[in-house]
Amino acid sequence: VKIEEKLYQNRYIVDENRPHIRIKDEAHCAACTSKACTVCCPAGCYSTNEAGGVTLATDGCLECGTCRVICQDSGNIEWDYPRGGYGISYKFG
Ligand code: SF4
């Protein structure tokens, strides 16, 4: 089974207008040379944008915490779990 097919099994309840992850300072992302978040996120939530910065779309977030760790030195990501009842539901098996 391909990873994309596995990911498709997950279900999400998106908390509209209340993203659980936030980029604190967009200018910092524009100046960041590695933009590691755009590579490391398994759900592809981070992408580079036309302004040379980073765009974050949290809808498909797997709540793995990788971006929080990878950006730890800069501390430019504000990260919380979604509030109760929202976020991802994994299908196991
Ligand atoms: Fe991507 Fe994981 Fe960060 Fe969610 S927690 S945005 S899946 S790296």
Overview of this protein structure:
The chain has 93 residues and is of the alpha+beta class. It has a single domain (3-89), classed as Alpha-Beta Plaits (2-Layer Sandwich), CATH 3.30.70.20. Helices cover 23% and strands 19% of the residues. It has a two-stranded antiparallel ribbon with strand order 1-6. A two-stranded antiparallel sheet has the order 2-5. A two-stranded antiparallel sheet has the order 3-4. The radius of gyration is 14 Å and the shape is globular. The termini are close together. It binds iron/sulfur cluster (SF4). Iron/sulfur cluster binds at residues 21, 41-43, 45, 61-67. To ferredoxins from P.putida and C.tartarivorum, ferredoxin I from A.vinelandii, ferredoxin II from D.desulfuricans. GO terms for molecular function: iron ion binding; iron-sulfur cluster binding. Keywords: Electron transport, Iron, Iron-sulfur, Metal-binding, Nitrogen fixation, Transport.
List key phrases describing it:
93 residues, alpha+beta, Alpha-Beta Plaits, two-stranded antiparallel sheet, two-stranded antiparallel ribbon, 19% strand, binds iron/sulfur cluster, electron transport
- How many structural domains? 1
What is the distance, rounded to the nearest whole angstrom, between the alpha carbons of the first and last residues? 12 Å
C-alpha geometry: globular
Would you give the CATH topology?
Alpha-Beta Plaits
Strand order of the largest sheet: 1-6
Elements, N to C (H/E): HEEHHEEHEE
